[in-house]
Design a protein that fits this description.
globular; binds zinc ion; 7-stranded mixed beta sheet; 7 helices; L-fuculose-1-phosphate Aldolase; 7 strands; alpha+beta; about 260 residues
Length: about 260
């Protein structure tokens, strides 16, 4: 076991610090844009260790979107065990985040973000999937089949039950987002910056769904059919526009090596 990481004092090498800053900046963006409030939410990002270990940076418990680089915890992607002693406790939702970016889901830079976005809570209150009336949101976030955004039924925050419900609703469907009944949402992207974009798109998608429902026109509203959804998804994936996946900021992840404290 390496020596304790001196929190607030030593963040590792430049690449390590760049990744920490990248994740914290992306998470704090959600507060600035009112997707999250009062520092709520949390996130996890896949990073390689010095020997190409599969590690995950997780926001510390109680820090959420107010997290600073020293508030991130390094854990093993497979076991969730802390890599260094002396770290702060990880987020209560680490188990859920790891089901989405840990184990066989691990890919360098991949980031899961959990938010408490009020429009999403409203849109998934009934437990049904959020319809893709907003086609961009459906294509970027929703299920492979039709763009609808899956919703996991209520379970207590921080529990294995919640983590299982989210993973089962999201992963087999090929979705990049999932609503959490009575709680919030989670998105998964290729980088912290892209995950933040997805969280904002989910916010808008839920607002549109709520407005359509409030108008009483949901039953007659346009939704993409399977072919339209697939074609639009391919179009967005090939686009260089604002919705295209962006690279992680700072040093390329492949060159990253988190510092092992001496
Ligand atoms: Zn939460």
């Amino acid at each position: 076991m390496p020596a304790p990481l001196a929190v607030g004092e030593k963040h590792g090498d430049d690449a390590d610090l760049a990744h920490r800053r990248s994740l914290c900046t992306a998470v704090s963006t959600l507060t600035t844009r009112h997707v999250n409030t009062m520092g709520s939410g949390n996130a996890a990002m896949c990073v390689a260790g010095p020997q190409s270990e599969k590690w995950v940076l997780v926001t510390a418990s109680g820090k959420g979107s107010s997290a600073q680089p020293a508030d991130l915890v390094v854990i093993d992607a497979q076991t969730a065990a802390p890599v260094f002693s002396g770290q702060p406790a990880p987020s209560i939702e680490t188990g859920m985040l790891l089901k989405l970016v840990g184990g066989s889901q691990w890919a360098e830079g991949k980031t899961a973000m959990h938010t408490h976005a009020a429009p999403v809570v409203a849109a998934c209150a009934a437990g049904a999937a959020i319809p893709p009336f907003y086609a961009i949101g459906g294509a970027l976030l929703g299920c492979d089949a039709d763009g609808s955004i899956p919703v996991a039924g209520w379970a207590l925050p921080g529990t294995e039950d919640l983590a299982r419900r989210v993973a089962e609703a999201m992963l087999p469907a090929g979705a990049n987002a999932c609503g959490m009944q009575g709680h919030g949402a989670v998105v998964v992207g290729k980088s912290p910056q892209y995950a933040a974009i997805l969280a904002e798109q989910l916010h808008v998608t839920a607002e549109v769904a709520n407005s359509v429902a409030a108008s009483g026109n949901a039953a007659h509203a346009w939704k993409p059919d399977a072919r339209q959804h697939r074609d639009f998804r391919h179009y967005l994936q090939g686009s260089a526009g604002c919705c295209a996946p962006g690279p992680a900021a700072g040093t390329p992840l492949a060159a990253s090596r988190l510092h092992s404290p001496a």
